[in-house]
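Supplementary Methods. Inverse-folding protocol.

Structures were first reduced to a discrete structure-token string of length 387. This string, shown here, constituted the complete conditioning input.
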């Protein structure tokens, strides 16, 4: 388990002073930090078909990028390259633990855990991200420079690499294992390995209005909704046929507004949208369906753990489509359940692991047994040893 130490700052102090506002170095945010994964395991994961990985290197002053899966790393020299894996939390239970200390931020804001291994001189180049990121330094050292927000010129250094022109640093530091660099969106930055090193980036990406709107349109199409035509049975004759009257403009706008104001519809979309997996899940559905009696017995002995990268949320309010209405959202789907099991559903959504003690009160609840069997059968949750 990783414990985050914000250097005398409370979580709220950090949020008020830095979150989305300015970058900060948190020295020894993780004390006695040990990489959750070895470099060999890391290199092995980038060989898997379903994993998004890339190798970034610089040769004779030219940036190069290759995409995984990789078959071998033998062609690479001793220095100036970096291997990056996206959504490592989906493929390594141990690495996924690094997200846990950041649960003072809502999980729906989380994008993924990205990690990189770099040899001396290795870097992905100077760039700007559009997400908040906590770059947690693992083994080895890296030199980080962060510039201020502002007008920066982006350049395409390679078809797969969008870089930024040289910038003046407002932060210029060497990070060692356990140090954390928080960077909000829009600040140019570059990390260069001073020796073979690992780095783990916990990224939080906010939604843009355009992606929400296009997601909403897809939701309407998929569910055959929103097809009603504008009605204007009360129309009166007009003089200027080329004019869109204020009244007509208002009713066109209202047509769209009605969809947004329909909370049942919009909440269902938001729940599905926020729980859609950001990256491919490493799903292993059970070969045989779980038996009720077996599950009841195991619930008292084992904990259940959520699959890495799986997203499960509920809405706070007691309006329709919320937890008190017996609704939650898991992996892009609305799940309905009997209201009386809401407390344990909240535990499943809020925690990575739910312990046997927490599960015990629900062992004899048939509604819960039915639901947890579905989740176990799908491979969304799995049994794990109680700590
Ligand atoms: C890296 O791990 O090398 C890059 C991380 C980042 O710049 O966000
Ligand atoms: Co970055």
């Amino acid at each position: 388990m990783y414990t985050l130490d914000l250097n005398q700052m409370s979580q709220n102090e950090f949020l008020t002073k830095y979150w989305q506002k300015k970058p900060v170095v948190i020295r020894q945010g993780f004390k006695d930090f040990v990489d959750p994964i070895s470099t060999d395991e890391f290199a092995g994961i980038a060989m898997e078909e379903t994993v998004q990985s890339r190798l970034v290197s610089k040769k004779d002053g030219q940036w190069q990028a290759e995409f995984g899966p990789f078959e071998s790393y033998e062609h690479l020299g001793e220095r100036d390259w970096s291997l990056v894996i996206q959504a490592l939390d989906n493929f390594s239970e141990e690495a996924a633990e690094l997200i846990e200390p950041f649960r003072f931020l809502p999980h729906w804001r989380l994008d993924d855990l990205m990690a990189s291994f770099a040899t001396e001189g290795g870097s992905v180049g100077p760039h700007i991200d559009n997400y908040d990121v906590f770059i947690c330094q693992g083994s080895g050292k890296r030199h980080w420079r962060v510039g201020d927000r502002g007008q920066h010129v982006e350049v395409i250094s390679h078809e797969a690499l969008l870089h930024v022109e040289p910038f003046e640093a407002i932060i210029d530091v060497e990070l060692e294992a356990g140090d954390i660099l928080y960077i909000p969106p829009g600040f140019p930055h570059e990390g260069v390995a001073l020796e073979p090193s690992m780095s783990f980036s916990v990224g939080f990406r906010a939604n843009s209005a355009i992606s929400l709107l296009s997601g909403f349109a897809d939701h309407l199409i998929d569910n055959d909704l929103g097809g009603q035509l504008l009605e204007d049975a009360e129309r009166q004759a007009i003089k200027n046929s080329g004019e869109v009257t204020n009244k007509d403009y208002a009713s066109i706008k209202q047509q769209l507004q009605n969809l947004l104001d329909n909370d049942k519809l919009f909440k269902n979309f938001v729940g599905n949208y926020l729980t859609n997996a950001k990256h491919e899940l490493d799903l292993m559905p059970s070969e045989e369906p779980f038996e009720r009696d077996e599950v009841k017995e195991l619930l008292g002995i084992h904990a259940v753990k959520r699959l890495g990268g799986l997203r499960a949320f509920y809405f706070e309010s007691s309006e329709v489509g919320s937890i008190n209405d017996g609704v939650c959202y898991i992996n892009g789907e609305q799940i309905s359940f009997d209201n009386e099991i809401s407390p344990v559903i909240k535990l499943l959504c809020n925690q990575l692991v739910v312990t046997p003690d927490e599960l015990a009160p629900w062992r004899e609840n048939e509604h819960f047994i039915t639901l947890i069997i579905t989740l176990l059968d799908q491979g969304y949750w799995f049994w794990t040893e109680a700590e």
